[in-house]
Design a protein that fits this description.
Number of helices: 17
CATH architecture: Up-down Bundle
CATH topology: Sodium/glucose cotransporter
Distance between the termini: 72 Å
Helix content: over 70%
Largest sheet: 2 strands, antiparallel
Length: about 475
């Protein structure tokens, strides 16, 4: 069999598995709580891997490896920032959010952020949160579809637009069928594939360049001085700025609804404790693996038109057709594991938070219609306004983190606010992220672009914050 046939068989088999999971999950989905939170019955392994794969997406396999290829060793700050934010999320946010959402029977992050607000304040805040989630997720999902399109077009003689349409249809199908259960179980399968790629590809690439000594020698030959410096050749405050800018990517973690709902869905505290350890291991394996892959890829392929395609270049040059097909499925799995989670959260925003359902129209029906609309909206954006995956993901990531992260932290810490303060903070955070993104001088990974929006929103909230009397 030729390469195209083998890749096609592998991908079709993989997609059939995902659809089968969706069918299985549909039989466990009976109401809102099942569709949006899996009935709060998420075990440790599924919680850990579904969280991890959803947080990583195409930006880790394609974007992070591409960033390491371009920036060199200083891309390590992106890895460190992601690891630190994961630890904060699992050790500080998770236990508090799990307990509080159970106590108040909250099904979505919007429910939690609204908390005890009433009247006009509640209505304005609901619209604000919903709009920001929908706008950001359309950009985010569009980036995932671009990644899916790149993966399909790398394997078949399809146009990018045709490839994006095919990938979007598969994601939409199993998300429609099984809701949260389908998303979580498929994300677990996809997380396993990503870990497999993060082990296999760096080892194969290292052997190809002649081991550690060959890698170090080759990297010094193909890299500039800046690419060999952990501060990109800068000194003093500029070096600190680069490090903080890279690590500050992690602040976006604290405002991502599709990640936070995993904490709300956990079965119990024991599951939480076990899931933490699994997540730490997975993160270290995948993030350091993709970071190294970008560096060694620069040695093996010193010149490329698109650094974000280094994963595909190495797949073709290092592996047999069958194994290459499995690794291609890994890229698609990374993309799908984020896109399906985001589609589900966006649908819950429309159907549950905004109460679009009612009367003879069920919430589940509205959720599924919303998923279809969101898929086609995101496809239109990806087709008509193409952009680098890394840049588009970072915009949505920073915007959501700045809008919701400060408010989430302060609520979990037990603070109360003046009536309009949460709305002000949400829009200041989101607006500053949009403004910085649109500036011509914007550089992905810079200090102002990654760090400022979160802290601008936090400082906008602090003057109207107080700790309730015990």
């Amino acid at each position: 069999m030729d390469k195209v046939t083998i890749v096609a068989i592998t991908l079709v088999s993989y997609k059939l598995l995902l659809v089968a999971i969706g069918f299985w999950a549909s039989r466990r989905t009976h109401d809102e709580k099942d569709f949006f939170l899996g009935g709060r019955r998420l075990g440790p392994f599924v919680a850990a891997l579904s969280y991890s794969s959803s947080s990583s997406s195409a930006w880790t396999l394609l974007g992070l490896s591409g960033a390491a290829y371009t920036l060199g060793v200083s891309a390590i700050w992106l890895v460190i920032g992601s690891l630190i934010s994961m630890l904060v999320a699992w050790y500080w946010i998770a236990p508090r959010l799990m307990d509080r959402s159970r106590e108040r029977d909250q099904l979505t992050i919007t429910d939690f952020l609204l908390d005890d607000s009433t009247g006009v304040i509640r209505a304005v805040m609901l619209v604000s949160i919903s709009l920001i989630i929908l706008i950001s997720f359309v950009f985010y999902i569009a980036a995932q579809f671009q990644g899916a399109g790149s993966a399909f077009s790398a394997a078949f003689d399809f146009s990018l637009n045709t490839s994006m349409l095919l990938g979007a249809f598969i994601i939409m199908l199993y998300t429609l069928m099984g809701g949260f259960w389908a998303v979580s179980v498929t994300d677990t399968v996809q997380g396993c594939l990503m870990a497999f790629a993060a082990i296999l590809m760096p080892i194969a690439a290292l052997l190809q360049v002649g081991g550690v000594s060959g890698f170090l020698t080759g990297l010094s030959e193909v890299s500039s001085v800046d690419q060999l410096s952990f501060s990109s050749g800068n000194v003093g405050l500029l070096a600190i700025g680069l490090a903080l800018g890279g690590m500050s990517i992690g602040f976006g973690t604290y405002g991502q609804p599709h990640l936070l709902i995993r904490f709300m869905a956990l079965r119990d505290k024991k599951s939480l404790e076990q899931a933490r350890l699994i997540t730490i291991f997975w993160y270290a394996l995948v993030f350091f693996g993709m970071y190294f892959l970008g560096l060694v890829g620069h040695v093996l392929h010193p010149m490329t038109d698109n650094p974000e395609n280094i994963f595909f270049l190495l797949t073709d040059s290092l592996f047999s057709t069958v194994l290459g097909a499995v690794l291609l499925a890994t890229v698609l799995s990374a993309i799908m594991s984020t896109a399906d989670s985001q589609l589900l959260v966006a649908a819950s925003t429309i159907a549950h938070d905004m109460r679009a359902g009612g009367g003879s129209i069920s919430v589940l029906f509205v959720s599924r219609v919303s998923i279809v609309i969101l898929v086609f909206t995101s496809l239109a954006l990806a087709t008509l306004v193409p952009q680098q995956i890394f840049d588009r993901v970072l915009f949505a990531w920073v915007a959501l983190g700045a809008a919701f992260g400060p408010l989430l932290f302060m609520r979990l810490a037990g603070f109360e606010f003046a009536r309009w303060a949460p709305i002000f903070s949400i829009w200041v955070g989101f607006g500053s992220a949009v403004l910085l993104y649109l500036l011509p001088s914007n550089v992905p990974g810079s200090l102002d672009d990654r760090l400022l929006p979160f802290f601008i929103a936090l400082f906008a909230l602090l003057p109207w914050t107080k700790k309730p009397a015990k």
